Amino acid sequence: MGKTSAGFWTVLGVMLLGGCAHQSQVKVDNSEQPYRIGREDVLDIAVWRDAELSRTLPVRPDGYISMPMVGEVHAAGKTPTELADSLKEAFQPYVQEPRVTVIVREVNSSRVFVTGEVANPGAYPLRGRVSLLQAIALAGGFTDFANSDGIVVIRTDSKGGQIPVRYSDLISPDGGHEVMLRPGDTVVVP
């Protein structure tokens, strides 16, 4: 075996071992929940072989959609598959063997609000996992008058409450933990 062959095998071995080591450290996060339709989302509803029943429509603020023949159908809080099953059942008396597909065209319900002493206060879409630091960056960062160690996250979910956060803790190298935002959270920067 010449120098070139030995070098090739050494490099290949290192690459394989490096790949194996990398793969063994990968953690799969199976905790993701299926997407739940929210108010103001826009849905594509397709009824197979029935173009008159197929449509694109928003979920109203009360959580309902209006469909021909079946009227008002509650959509908010359901997965697209659950809504498709509900519509299939509702169409059963009117359509022979209905096949319904629901696709979320626009996600408008998942938002966080950033207010106070940031450059651009307002509502920001929550696409995937968004941290408090990322939301502050989306809002343009702090103004000159911000009290960055007096941040409060107001949570509106079932547990509710307020989460006081110090920016200096978030960026400290010795253990500040990041706050992950949830739909409906309001970040107040005094």
Automatic annotation (TrEMBL):
GO MF term list = polysaccharide transmembrane transporter activity
A Pfam match: SLBB
Per UniProt, residues of the Polysaccharide export protein N-terminal domain are 30-104
Alphabetically list the UniProt keywords: Signal
What are the Soluble ligand binding domain coordinates in residue numbering? 111-162
Sections of the chain in a coiled coil: none
Superkingdom per UniProt: Bacteria
This chain belongs to the protein called Polysaccharide biosynthesis/export protein
Q: What is the lineage of its organism?
A: Bacteria, Pseudomonadati, Myxococcota, Myxococcia, Myxococcales
